[in-house]
What does this fold into?
Amino acid sequence: MLSRFDWLRRCRTGTELLATLSYFSKDPSLADLNFGPPFSATKGPCLRCLIYAPVADGGKYRRYCKFCREILIRKRWWALKSSRAVVIWGYVNHIPRQLQEFKPSRFIYGAYIHDRQHFLLSMHRQHLREWLQELALYDGLDLGGLIQIFPTLGQWRSLNMGDYLTWAIHHEAACSMDRLWVRFFTQHDQLINPKIDDQKGILTWTASEFLSLLEMTEAFRANIYSEEQKDLYELLILDDPTQEQFYWGRFLGRLSREAKDMLTAWKIRAWPKERVKLLYKLINYVILP
It folds into this structure.
């Protein structure tokens, strides 16, 4: 008999994962699932899970079991939201208070508490800062461990969503429990070998450092227009320092006083290129104030 966690690890795409978490919010019973017959010319188990018996009166989903039929129906509704969602796997010293009293909302899609130290959460990526702030407000210094954040998978590839979740579980003990750490993955493949990005200093942060980074990104998006953001990016990743020096003064002349002061205070020209790239990836994770 598959447990709820088994069903989550069998999800192929982010859409299926969100649909499964949504279905779990209804607290369905998994005890009424019966094992399906072996494959034959006329019969066989569910085409999705390959374990349970198909539902006889399932209509166009008659070749799927009760659970898989529900996921396939729900996933159509989650298709658009999945492209803007993030998944959070937490390994902490205790479950945060806001998850113990969790209720799905417009931007917090679903949650699963595995045991006293592990949880899975999905949400709209632009509300990540708001959720982390609430986490710090309610649990503060009492909470320690590692929170891993990664995007959902839009299309089933050689590795599926459940595989990447398993990789996150594999790396969950990488940080100590003395404080709350955040690992932010912008691509799924980073989960397979996170040491490469850890050496660049762009993967693992304390919770306060990562919150500050999100706040900086929000200020960056609010003070610099989209076209100027593109020009600044091209300027910051130039390999020739003489060209950068030549174009920098001309670029600053196009900015507002607030934007100039912000970039000067950040000393953004001295940033490593990898951190510049991370800043631009984080733009999709914040909203305008």
User: Anything to note?
Assistant: Residues 214-285 form one domain. The radius of gyration is 22 Å.
